[in-house]
Structure formats: structure tokens, C-alpha cells
Amino acid sequence: MDLNFLFKILPLLLEGAKMTVLLTVLAIFFGSILGLISALFRLSRFKVLNGISWFYTWSIRGIPLIVQLFIWYFGLPSLGIELSAFTAGVCALSVCEGAYISEIIRGGITSINKGQNEAALSIGMTSWQSMRRIILPQAIKVVVLPFGNECITAMKDTALVSVISLVELMRKATILDATYVRSMEIYVTAAAIYLIMTSSIMVIIYLLSKKFNLRGEYSR
């Protein structure tokens, strides 16, 4: 390992890491919105909404993310819809994360005793008020750990957007390797940056779990 070379490439890799963090934040943000909507649809009494949610989670979770990226970036232009690499990457990651987060949220909601919802309805609350005031606040505590796992997975999955030429950490490492042909130093440094970023998420989730007195472990 040449330390001088490492110090030379580190700022360049960190530029790519900024894009990785941005993609992760956007994917989790939009994925959480999609996931919450999908989870509520899946728990709905209306069969149409239930079916839409089921099909969404079934199809998206069953298709590799790299294929989804290709559909968004290379497939949509055939329909007259052209997206930039960044937009396609955010859309693919968000939709994919939404399917997994949907199941996490649904699991958290269904873990709450049904009697609490019935009690809320019996005192005059609407179903929405019961969900917002009684069920969701408790479900949040249940989903903290699995949601943290999904955040880590989302950050690692951003490496796949390099296949559509979006310059994040992995793509930046590939470009540097093509320039300097020093694979070991470049990819080990990139791996270390990924490890630091994912470990930071682990620390945040650990602190939240301590705050809420939760127990669990990271699955991925």
C-alpha cells in the first residue's frame, strides 16, 4: 500500500461517497413513503387496494434490482420516457426499497394487539385516528431495528447504479482503477469507506434501540 497514492485518491472517492449518501437518503425517504402507503393498502378492507399492494411487493421483491435499473434507464426510452441516470437510479432504488419497507411496516402494525384498535374505535375514534394515534406510534418501536437493516442494505445497493454510469463511490473507484490500474489499493479504500458509512448507520440504530429499549440484531 502506497500511502501517498491513497491520500491522492481518497478525496476523489469521497466525492463518489457523497453521491452514495445522497442516493441512500433519497431512496429511504421516498421508499418509506411508498412503503407506508403500500402497508396501509395491504391492511385495507378493500380488495383492490390489497391486491395492488400485494402485486407491488411480490413483483418488486422478486426482480433483481439491477434488472429494475435497466428497465428504468434503458427500457423507458422505448416508451418515449427518458430519464437521467440520477433520476433513474433514485426511482429504481426508491421503488425497490418501498417494497421491502412496506413489509417491515406491515409486520410492525400487525404485531400490535388488535384489542387496542378495537378499544380506540369503541371510544369514538375513527380508523385513521386509531392508526395515527395508537397503532403507528407503537409500531415505530417495533420496526426500528429491521428498518435500520434496510437502510444499510439500501446503502450497499447504491453500488449497482454504477451500471448505468451514475458516478457514486463504486463507479468512481472503477474509473480510478481504469486510470491507475491499482485495483487492490483503490477497491480496499472504497470498501473501507463503505464500511465506515454502514457502521455509522449501525451506531445510529443502536442508539435508537437503546433509547426505545429494544432488542434485536442486524440481519444483513
Detailed description of the structure:
The chain has helices at 3-42, 47-62, 65-75, 85-110, 114-122, 127-157, 169-180, 183-211. 79% of the residues lie in helices and 0% in strands. Helix 2 (47-62) packs across helix 4. It has 220 residues and is an all-alpha fold. The two termini are 30 Å apart. It has one domain (3-211): MetI-like fold (Orthogonal Bundle).
Keywords:
MetI-like fold; 220 residues; 8 helices
CA-CA gap between termini = 30 Å
Q: How would you classify the quaternary structure? A: single chain
- % residues in beta strands: under 5%
Number of helices: 8
Order of helices and strands: HHHHHHHH
Write the CATH fold name.
MetI-like fold
The stretches of 5 or more residues where confidence is low (pLDDT under 50) are: 216-220
- Give the overall form: flat
Largest sheet: none
Fourth-level CATH superfamily: MetI-like
**Total domain modules:** 1
Bin the helical content. over 70%
- Report the strand count: 0
